[in-house]
Amino acid sequence: MAESDLQNPDPATCAGSSADFETCRNCATPLRGDYCYHCGQRNQQVIGFFPTLVLEAFEGLFAFESRTWRSIWLLFSRPAWLTREYLAGRRIRYLPPLRLFFAFLLAFLFAVSVEMFLDSIGIDIDSEPVVAGQDVSDETLGEDELVEFRTELQKLADRLQIPFLSAENNRKFVALLQDRAIRNFTAIREDPLDFVDQLLEYLPVLLLVMMPVLALIQKIVYIRSGRYYIEHLLLSIQNHSFLFLTFILVFLLDLIIWLDFGILPAIAGFLRILLNLWTVAYLYLSLRQFFGQGYLLTGLKFVSISLTYGIVLLTGILLFSLIGFFVY
User: Over the stretch 58-70, which tens digit does the pLDDT of each residue have?
Assistant: First the structure.
């Protein structure tokens, strides 16, 4: 075959028969299998059935292949397995840890958005018709809440003193915070779902901060394990990915219960209980399998890690909620 033919292939050949190409259409290297060993391009027809193009797009974006399903199943069923395999150097068989994490994070955010949308529909459908005088009482209740909020806010403002600000600048800064807080409180009362939606925008940042924190807690608790911090971080990434996966499954089960079709809600409710139990057992077994210590010692460390991380996570949520409230 002439060199010019390799550099400028005939379009008819590309759209012709379904026979495999003998040379790579990208770099003209002789092929020895389904993939070019020189550039890595797959040996397949460019012009073909449209669903094939769609599948190829998803395959490139989400690594939509057998190792995807293998990774998801092992993530769900084998605590700490993917982390141990990754550290053992067997990485090509499974999806990278961060790819799994971000994939399930996006899926989780989508599920939460859908749930919020369904809740908003449910509120509209289930809302009772307004009777005479009801709007007046609601408005009065809102004014009472606003007055109470202003009172509590003023008490807090009187005690707030920024150390590095002068008295005059501190007064102006506190007044600015008060004004912003009152405006945001009124806006949130009118549309609370919009505020929750904005908080979800900060969720990925919070979780990216929390994963290294959990790894640090594990490092301190297992200080004598001989594990590097990056190993604790990899386990933290896998466990967070598992939690996102369980949240998605819980959402699907709740959706089945909400549809209320035949005996499916009863089955979904039972599976939800099993899933909750498996979540606790999974996190415990991940420590047991990864660090190889006894059941009792692992149990004590699991409780201490869970309590510490729970306090830190709650603090982070409150902090991010406070930031979200003032920047809303």
Answer: 555 555 567 888 8
Long-range (24+ apart) CB contacts under 8 A made by 39-47 are: 45/14, 45/15, 45/18, 46/14, 46/15, 47/14, 47/15
Task: Enumerate long-range contacts of 322-326, CB under 8 Å, 24 or more apart.
Answer: 323/202, 324/195, 324/198, 324/199, 324/202, 325/181, 325/184, 325/188, 325/195, 326/177, 326/180, 326/181, 326/184
In angstroms, rounded to a whole number, what is the distance separating the alpha carbons of residues 104 and 85? 20
Q: Which amino acid is at 305?
A: I
- pLDDT-above-70 percentage for the chain: 60
Domain residue extents for the chain: 3-48, 74-327
Residues sharing a CB contact under 8 Å with residue 191, sequence separation 6 or more, in sequence order:
none
pTM of the model: 0.65
Give the separation between CA 163 and CA 167, rounded to whole angstroms.
10
Tokens of 117: 């949308």
**Degrees, nearest 5: CA angle 316-317-321:** 115
The residue assigned the tokens 């949240």 is 247
* Amino acid code (one letter) for 256: I
CB 217 within 8 A of CB 312: yes
Distance CA 111, CA 63 (A): 21
CA 317 to chain centre: 15
End-to-end Cα spacing for the chain: 66
DSSP state at residue 8: S
Which contiguous run of DSSP H or E holds residue 230? helix 229-259
Mean pLDDT of the chain: 75
Q: Is the pLDDT of residue 289 over 80?
A: yes
The DSSP secondary-structure symbol of 131 reads P
And the tokens for 136?
């007046």
Closest by CA to 15, choosing from 51, 60, 47, is 47
Q: How far is Cα 113 from Cα 188, in angstroms, rounded to an integer? A: 18
